[in-house]
Amino acid sequence: MKRNTLFFILFIWTYSHAIYAIPTETKIPAQAAVASAHPLATQAGKQILLQGGNAFDAAIAVTAALAVVEPYSSGLGGGGFWLLHEQKKNKTIIIDGRETAPALAHRDLYLDQNGAYIAKSSVDGALAAGIPGTVAAMVHLSEKYGILSLKTVLQPAIKLAEQGFPVTQHYQKMAQFRLSVLQSFPASAEIFLHNNKVPKAEHLIIQKKLAQTLRLISEKGHAGFYEGQIAENLVSAIQAEKGIWQLDDLKHYRVKEREPVQFQYHDMQVFSAPPPSSGGIALATILQILQTYDFELLDETTQSHLMIEAMRRAYRDRAEYLGDSDFVKVPVTRLTHPWYAEGLAAGIHLEKALPSDNLHEIIPAVGKSVSTRTEGQDTTHFSILDTQGNMVSSTMSINYPFGSGLTAAGTGVLLNDEMDDFSALPGTANIYGLVGAEANAVAAGKRPLSSMSPTIVKTPQGIALLGTPGGSRIITMVLLGILEFEKNSDPSQWVKRARFHHQYLPDKVFFEKKAFSKDMITRLKKMGHQLQETDSDYGNMQAISWDYKQGVSAASDPRVEGQAIVFDIP
Ligand code: GLY
């Protein structure tokens, strides 16, 4: 079934030249679109586009609005990745606003005197929080890419924080999940609970302090958050809870502009997040493994089997090689090369699963513990297209629902627990069951390895913008979304597609009820796969399609409560 190498090279050459020949920069969409995980954030993006802002201004408005109305997913106390495409320059870059480990952090930060992991120390409370990057990213976006003032674009979020937003079922679910940690921090309970309980539906969450913080940022920019009163309040709150932040950690925080990971899959040019995210590299590995087969000619069970085997290998490499490339040498060129994928594909058997234990062991696993969590809706994503053809695909996080649970008094800022994305003890699993090695060990100033995968796909026929929350499952959801895009330019098909996931360890295929038929389950089990149906559906994809013939369309994952809109700009 394998293509021979010469044919493969010709195939890649032909398609890549076909792609590069398209003058995408001369194309202009007839309509704009915004898709985000909350209707109020989507409307904030629309408002700014209608006020004359570009996609980058709208991205700041949506980032800030989501920080207010989805406090369990992202926020000023968190970080993320903003993948931008500037149409006039035909330039696609990523803003890395990932959190950094504070200067006093070190490899054994979360270990006791016996070298064992201290339960929850990287998940709940002050020690779990990295230095946030979201505000720096918003200011950078505004200064370098926006056309409206920061004051204008932050206005919708300030209003939402001051006037409040109504509690929904999804809010209740997330608050219930983190109830005990929210109750343990009075400044959090006061804002996000009501009488110390999960608030009733329609209860208004009003965030006056957060509105003040946003206003200060709108006036003073970067310094409004990373220096002065807010910075002092953040550091005091952290230190009062035995955390290790210092004022200099905040003062020295900077976003990084990076080249996205780019690769070719059939006629698609895929752009996604580079280290310190694992998303782009893992997507390149998986898709380029699939590309070595006549994938579309295979039956559905064999396709699923191949995807599972490709996922297994990509997540194995994630665990061994990936970390913050400013600190460790990540072999990006090798890992994203089609020949490397061909080599991995050579070890795949078309009729049989190869257990993860049979792959080359990374390090003796100290504890192959398994996270039993199945929520998969932590973190958030939005996609934006303006009528100049500028685009933003952004995934942002505070990690676990409601992050560390700690709100810094006087700021309204709920802090992340992104430090859990490091390998606290190489060889042990984090909250998502992901194992890691030395490449992702904790170090001062280092960024924890992420799975966030904001993605833009360009083809001769059009463009796809997509991404989703979901912890370790983000990458495989985006993968399935890209494969749907190949079949169909309607984004409602990409976001609703039933999902499955394998991450090397635990050696299990997690799947949504509708992902496999009974017959497929029987056949996959016979091949040797361990299958586990998830307790509930997972993910929250926000996608936009710009088909050069059919126009713009957008879709929000039907599993949750987001909103996707397409509209004219008069
Ligand atoms: N905190 C989730 C991620 O970055 O992958």
Q: In summary, what is this structure?
A:
The protein is α+β, with helices and mostly antiparallel strands. It contains 19 helices and 20 strands. It folds into two domains: 32-257 and 383-423, no CATH class; 258-373 and 452-567, 4-Layer Sandwich (Glutamine Phosphoribosylpyrophosphate, subunit 1, domain 1).
Helix/strand layout:
Blueprint: H1 5-20, E1 32-36, H2 39-50, H3 55-69, E2 79-86, E3 91-97, H4 134-144, H5 150-163, E4 165-166, H6 169-177, H7 179-183, H8 186-192, E5 204-205, H9 208-220, H10 223-226, H11 228-240, H12 247-251, E6 256-258, E7 261-265, E8 268-272, H13 279-290, H14 300-321, H15 332-335, H16 338-346, E9 380-385, E10 391-397, E11 407-408, E12 413-414, E13 455-458, E14 462-466, H17 474-487, H18 491-496, E15 500-501, E16 509-511, H19 518-527, E17 531-533, E18 542-547, E19 551-556, E20 563-567
Parallel strand pairs: 16-17
Antiparallel strand pairs: 1-9, 1-20, 2-3, 2-10, 3-6, 4-5, 7-8, 8-13, 9-10, 11-12, 13-14, 14-18, 15-16, 18-19
Bound molecules: glycine (GLY).
Residues 379, 397, 399, 418, 421, 450-452, 471 line the site of glycine (GLY).
Please tell me about this protein's structure.
- This protein has 570 residues and is an alpha+beta fold.
- It folds into two domains: 32-257 and 383-423, no CATH class; 258-373 and 452-567, 4-Layer Sandwich (Glutamine Phosphoribosylpyrophosphate, subunit 1, domain 1), CATH 3.60.20.
- 35% of the residues lie in helices and 15% in strands.
- It contains 19 helices and 20 strands.
- It has helices at 5-20, 39-50, 55-69, 134-144, 150-163, 169-177, 179-183, 186-192, 208-220, 223-226, 228-240, 247-251, 279-290, 300-321, 332-335, 338-346, 474-487, 491-496, 518-527; strands at residues 32-36, 79-86, 91-97, 165-166, 204-205, 256-258, 261-265, 268-272, 380-385, 391-397, 407-408, 413-414, 455-458, 462-466, 500-501, 509-511, 531-533, 542-547, 551-556, 563-567.
- The strands form five sheets. It has a seven-stranded antiparallel beta sheet with strand order 6-3-2-10-9-1-20, covered by helices on one side. Strands 7-8-13-14-18-19 form a six-stranded antiparallel beta sheet, with helices on both faces. Strands 15-16-17 form a three-stranded mixed beta sheet, with helices on one face.
- A hairpin with a 5-residue loop joins strand 9 and strand 10.
- Helix 2 runs antiparallel to helix 3, helix 3 runs antiparallel to helix 4 and helix 14 crosses helix 19.
- The longest helix is centred in the middle third of the chain and has 22 residues, at 300-321.
- Residues 1-25 and 364-372 have low confidence and may be disordered.
- The protein binds glycine.
- Residues 379, 397, 399, 418, 421, 450-452, 471 line the site of glycine (GLY).
